[in-house]
Specification:
Blueprint: H1 3-14, H2 16-25, H3 27-36, H4 46-60, H5 63-82, H6 87-110, H7 116-147, H8 156-172, E1 178-183, E2 188-191, H9 193-199, H10 203-206, H11 221-232, E3 237-244, E4 250-261, E5 267-276, H12 278-321, H13 326-354, E6 362-365, H14 366-383, E7 386-391, E8 398-401, H15 403-419, E9 425-433, E10 437-444, H16 451-455, H17 471-482, E11 486-492, E12 496-504, E13 506-507, E14 510-511
Parallel strand pairs: 7-9
Antiparallel strand pairs: 1-2, 1-5, 3-4, 4-5, 6-8, 9-10, 10-12, 11-12, 13-14
Helix pairs in contact: 1-4, 1-7, 2-4, 4-5, 5-7, 6-7, 6-8, 12-13, 12-14, 12-17, 14-15, 15-17
């Protein structure tokens, strides 16, 4: 057994009355003691006895001591039930006891009287004991509810909320995840060790701060406004967030935020449960870049053909210039300049798409991106007897996103459409906006797909092409997901396929959800 852990146990045992007094000074502690009629002046008071058992177990790790604590919890639970104390109040009381113990441990750690290993060991044992108390009391309440008419004024919904709060409390004790507890004003009231490790902040630096301290600047204000709206309405929120640690490093976390609500449905605090997905995001970015390079290589033949045509024109007119009269030279010069501009556009678009870019989200004109992609693919389409037509609005309608990633998606889908037309045909590109959505439709008249093939779209290494690997659509689906969008596909064999890419509409600087 760890010597330092034993010393902490002795200190808890020795100061059990002082810890009981501190618990009663906390509002929730005073309320519970008043309702159950616990008095600190009583010899061997119930509250003092609990801390005594906790300290005793830290010293001995004896199963009999755990059983004594369970018996204590049974007495407390019986008193609470007979005093009509609700389970949610007792759950908050358990959180209060844990905070008192953590304060003691922080003092010991600050004075360097306890090692990190011993600190973690004591916290783990304390959590185990508090969970034992919570489980014992919960079982009493469940037994009581199932056998009597206890608390007739409480509805079934109130009971479900209370049990949910207890489950949330137990989840918060699970040190296997990155989590923090935040109050109704978005101020951090608790952060576990893993949260401190990934953020590079100490617990003391985090407590009392808002989550804004971790803002990387990557997400727009509307992103956090939507999170806040969901929490206020009592709805869980799940998504991926890019945060910035104290030392400036960036990290991605898969985040679930669970709001805790009172009996009136009002959120009074929420739990943030996170998993580090930084490496996963890096892998996705590598796949996206690899697919982009593959796409660049596939486009090269069409680009070469597209450049060769204007070069042939330029060469012919240059030869004519040497034998023409001065009035015709001006006409020839205009034609040459038009063809040179055409070459410049093709090369510029190809280079912009091919070179690496930082991921910067901004308002992007959907019609502008689509026209650019169509122009870039016209040569390859012509080589395959495919006609690309468009029905795009004259005015700019916007998507909030990363321009080059969006180009990559549209290039992938239109290029797949070309390959689905082995004997030539038509591809129709259109865009429309509703009050809340931006819908881009890409329809081909190709060979189509079966329902089973449609279901598997976006899975890695799933492809309908002989030489494909399925990574193109997999990357495209992920890009659209990161843009808060979705892809719908409708296809019929020998009739064609329609891809609908749907984004939240952008009004001003706000994303409409």
């Amino acid at each position: 057994m760890d010597y330092q852990s034993s010393l902490i146990g002795k200190k808890i045992k020795k100061n059990s009355r002082h810890l009981a007094e501190k618990t009663m000074e906390v509002p929730i502690g005073g309320i519970i003691c008043s309702l159950i009629n616990i008095k600190i002046s009583d010899r061997d008071s119930l509250l003092e006895e609990m801390f005594y058992h906790i300290g005793d177990y830290m010293i001995s790790r004896d199963i009999e001591v755990r059983n004594s604590l369970a018996s204590w919890a049974d007495v407390l639970g019986q008193k609470a039930i007979s005093s009509d104390v609700s389970l949610d109040l007792l759950t908050s009381f358990g959180s209060c006891i844990r905070s008192i113990l953590l304060d003691l441990l922080e003092e010991e750690a600050a004075s360097m009287r306890i090692s990190t290993k011993a600190l973690f060991d004591v916290i783990r044992q304390a959590d185990s004991l508090i969970e034992l108390v919570a489980g014992t009391i919960t079982k009493l309440y469940i037994d009581r509810f199932s056998t009597t008419k206890f608390a007739l004024d409480e509805s079934t919904e109130d009971l479900n909320i209370t049990l949910k709060e207890l489950a949330d409390f137990k989840n918060a004790l699970n040190e296997a995840t990155i989590f923090a507890i935040t109050d109704s004003l978005d101020v951090i009231t608790y952060a576990n060790e893993k949260f401190c490790e990934i953020t590079k902040y100490s617990r003391a630096e985090l407590i009392g701060q808002e989550h804004e301290i971790l803002n990387s600047g990557f997400h727009p204000p509307s992103f956090f406004k939507e999170i806040r709206k969901s929490i206020t309405e009592g709805k869980p929120w799940k998504g991926e967030i890019l945060n910035k640690a104290k030392d400036g490093t960036l990290y991605w976390v898969d985040t679930t935020i669970v709001p805790l609500t009172d009996i009136h449905g009002k959120t009074y605090q929420h739990l943030s449960i996170q998993y580090d997905i930084t490496e996963k995001k890096r892998t996705e970015e590598m796949l996206r870049k690899a697919e982009k390079l593959s796409l660049v290589g596939e486009l090269a033949a069409g680009i070469a053909h597209e450049i060769r045509n204007p070069l042939t024109t330029v060469k012919g007119f240059v030869q004519l210039l040497s034998t023409s009269h001065s009035e015709k030279k001006l006409l020839y010069a205009d034609t040459i300049l038009e063809e040179v501009d055409r070459i410049n556009f093709i090369v510029s678009e190809f280079m912009v798409f091919a070179k690496p870019h930082a991921t910067n989200y901004s308002e992007c004109s959907a019609p502008e991106i689509l026209r650019s992609v169509i122009k870039l693919l016209e040569a390859e389409a012509a080589l395959n007897a495919v006609i690309i037509s468009s029905d795009l609005p004259d005015e700019n309608i916007y998507i909030y996103g990363e321009k080059n990633q969006l180009k990559q998606v549209f290039l992938n889908i239109i290029k797949n459409g070309i390959e689905a037309l082995p004997n030539g045909g038509n591809i129709i590109v259109s865009a429309a906006k509703t009050s809340s959505e931006m819908i881009i439709s890409i329809r081909d008249t190709g060979i189509g797909m079966t329902p089973e093939q449609v279901k598997k779209l976006g899975e890695p290494f799933n492809t309908t092409k002989d030489s494909g690997n399925g990574l193109g659509l997999m990357v495209s689906y992920k890009i659209i997901q990161n843009h808060q969008g979705r892809i719908l596909v409708h296809s019929e064999i020998n009739k064609g396929t329609t891809f609908q890419i749907i984004f939240p509409a952008v009004n001003g600087n706000q994303i409409v959800n």
